[in-house]
Specification:
Structural class: alpha/beta
Shape: globular
Helix content: 10-25%
Number of strands: 15
Length: 391
């Protein structure tokens, strides 16, 4: 009897164990064994997963490590290193240069065409020795083209069919920028900004300037340095603003007031009419160029000290195109909205002026990035310098 009882209990235990290991569900899942889910491992973000994708680069909200501000009113281009240490912190000026903006000519008087558009753009493409598709303005250098000798004046460059009008580098912008690029100009490094000064002559700019329709230009060493600092996707903010200082004493820039920094470069004939790496000397050395490739080499003095331009009224707009009035297009003072703090790279209550010939393009919201804004109210406008009559 005891043996029978033990036999029946063993059968019962075996049946229960088998059922526990082969549970099935009904319906569509019938005959399908339900298996326990493995424990998920914590996700590890790879560099590829955290990197900014190409799509993100062109997102209006994606901030670039450095950004460019072009103040069309004062004809100043400035590059800032964006501060990320705190929310809405002050940015650092790392480069400042004079530029020339779009101007009317005897052949083109429509202000909506010649004026440089305002707005938020990004660098979409960079070309070394750019040449327009129609061949109207030949490249500064191209295989088979004659090289304009050093020391040549503007007439020599023009007699070569405006050869070199776009200079060493060209930054094409997007979105909705038309052909209003940022580019270099005629001349060699030794010419520095002489050609900019030449085009600021009101008679030259009105009669002869072949590159007046909205594009902005700087000297060739400056455009090369901008190429070195700014990658694709870099924010370009074009504004028409009064300039001011958050710190009138410019304490954090005193080291750059009298002691300049320098950038060594090597310009070669490689990658003409193509996207190119920086011509920084250390980068070019890694490319193993040969001496016959070198067109020019030198050292560029980098201006890192903020030099503001005050607004000043002029009689009949005289001198407005000389880069000295802080009001290139001669709009009335009452149409200026807000202030651009040049030592911080930030704007106080700024709005684009709503007047002719100014038009706004770029990203459709027509607003500046949040990182470029501040509520700082303790600023001073750049003062008008009074002549020293003490001597």
């Amino acid at each position: 009897m005891n043996t029978l009882i033990l036999f029946l209990l063993s059968i019962s235990l075996f049946s229960n164990t088998s059922m526990a290991q082969a549970i099935t569900v009904s319906g569509a899942e019938k005959k399908k064994v339900v298996k326990p889910k493995p424990v998920a491992k914590p996700a590890v973000k790879s560099k590829a997963a955290t990197a900014v994708t190409k799509k993100d680069v062109w997102n209006q909200e994606t901030a670039s490590p450095v950004f460019i501000v072009q103040n069309i009113a004062t004809e100043k281009l400035r590059v800032y290193r964006r501060c990320t240490e705190a929310i809405l912190c002050a940015h650092e000026l790392i480069f400042e240069a004079d530029m020339i903006v779009g101007q009317s000519t005897s052949n083109q008087k429509d202000p909506k065409i010649f004026a440089t558009r305002l707005g938020h753009f990004k660098i979409a493409k960079r070309t070394k020795f750019f040449e327009d598709g129609n061949g109207k303005y030949p490249a500064w250098f191209k295989n088979g083209y004659p090289v304009v000798p050093k020391g040549s004046n503007a007439d020599v460059w023009w007699n070569n069919l405006y050869s070199g009008a776009y200079g060493w580098f060209t930054a094409q912008l997007g979105p909705n920028a038309g052909e209003q690029v940022i580019h270099g100009t005629y001349g060699w490094a030794s010419d520095k900004d002489n050609f900019l000064k030449h085009f600021r002559n009101p008679f030259v700019s009105f009669i002869d300037d072949p590159m007046a329709e909205g594009a902005t230009r700087v000297e060739n060493q400056a455009i090369a340095y901008i190429r070195h600092l700014a990658d694709l996707g870099t924010d370009v903010l074009r504004v028409y603003a009064l300039e001011g200082f958050a710190d009138q004493n410019l304490v954090r820039y005193q080291a750059y007031k009298n002691q300049k920094t320098f950038w060594d470069w090597v310009l070669t004939n490689k990658d003409a009419q193509k996207s190119s790496v920086s011509i920084d000397r250390s980068i070019q050395l890694k490319k193993n160029y040969i001496y016959s490739d070198v067109l020019e080499e030198g050292r560029f003095e980098v201006d890192r000290y903020p030099t503001g331009m005050p607004y000043s009224a002029t009689l009949f707009g005289l001198g407005a195109g000389l880069g000295q009035t802080g009001n290139t297009y001669q709009i009335k003072r009452k149409h200026f909205k807000g202030v651009f703090l040049i030592d911080e790279g930030r704007f106080v209550n700024y709005e684009h002026p709503q007047v002719t010939p100014l038009t706004v393009a770029g990203y459709p919201l027509h607003t500046l990035p949040a990182y470029a804004l501040t509520q700082n109210s303790s600023y001073v406008l750049v003062p008008i310098e009074t002549p020293d009559t003490s001597n």
